[in-house]
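User: Hello, can you help with two protein structures?

Assistant: Certainly.
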Amino acid sequence: MKTTISLMCTLLLLTACGADEAIEATKSMPERMDQMKQKMDETETALGRVFSFEALLKEPYGKNLIPVPFDLIPFATEFSKYAPTKELVEVVYLWVRKINEVTLDLPSPTPDEVFQFDWRKMHVQAALQAVAGTIPRTKLEKIIREQIFASGRYSDAALNLLMLRVRYLRDVMLDASLLSEKMNDVGDLEKAVEYADEIDYIARLRFARQIHLDLTGFKNNDLDVMEVFEPSVALKIWQKIKFKATVNLKVELKDVSGVPGENELLYQENQARYNKALTFVNDKIRAWGVQP
């Protein structure tokens, strides 16, 4: 009997010790979470430095800028993903100023020298647009909170960044790419909807009409950019996508699989995707007070 009681007491003590350890572990959990978040932030910052903005300005990435800077986009996407929000707006602030203020210090430049001078600035502009256009939404929202809502040091640069983002999505990824020709697949429609929704998000910001961009440092004045964002552009894009999707895109039964019945299933899945995307587009058009 004494042995049994002793054993029970020992078990109770061990259980109590385990509970104490669990409580202490729980108390230290917030600190551990903070340490983990700090390490993740440090990792993100380090990766952002590896994928530096200056690396995007290497000559090979600037050979083909029009209509779509394909060589720039993969590296811009990595930079925008890993660079801290403060660095992203600092990059916009610094390089917009460089475009506007750096001059061609030659007494009588040749046409080729003028062309090369302007092309280098176009390269910077394309890189800025690609970076701004590929920033993840959560990171973009953080920039808006830190710089615009909180009247941060780079509030005007943040407004420039938003205009650069719109120009990338509207002019490059939509007008010069997805909407420049017939839509062939449901994936084209879904990607167009994704880009348009990012523009729609910007168009619905309360300060949307303050978004602007001024790039006036080119020798050829026709290359200058002086744009103030017009929120109605979002509706126009939705309507353009609607036209492309209803007139040009037809979901068809295709013989792509050798498995009996699978072609029909794929057709049904693609039709469902098409209907979902088109419903989303129609809802967005209605949200602007217009019947689709």
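That covers the first. Now for the second protein you mentioned:
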Amino acid sequence: MDDVDYKNFEDLIRQSRIGISYILKNFQVIEEKAPYEVEGCQFYEYFATYTFEHVELSEPVAVNLNVVIVEHNNYFYYINLHDCPAQNQTAVAEFDQFKRSLRMI
């Protein structure tokens, strides 16, 4: 990360969201949680949507994206959780259970 110019972890997250917006079509952050700590590690989380297109789909679909970012021992971990209610593929309960199980060692 030496080649990326950022002031602090929050600035890096902001820059990352800008970068993602160039990759994912119609990317939009819809909710950002306040930072929280789990066992001494700083966690950041936000919810977004984007449009997914594929040749096997008859039309584009809206996808939900839940991003969990963890700062631990000077490393940044990005965990991306995607589901698609438009295709009856939802995993809110599973995502919540997974996030509650996260522990950095």
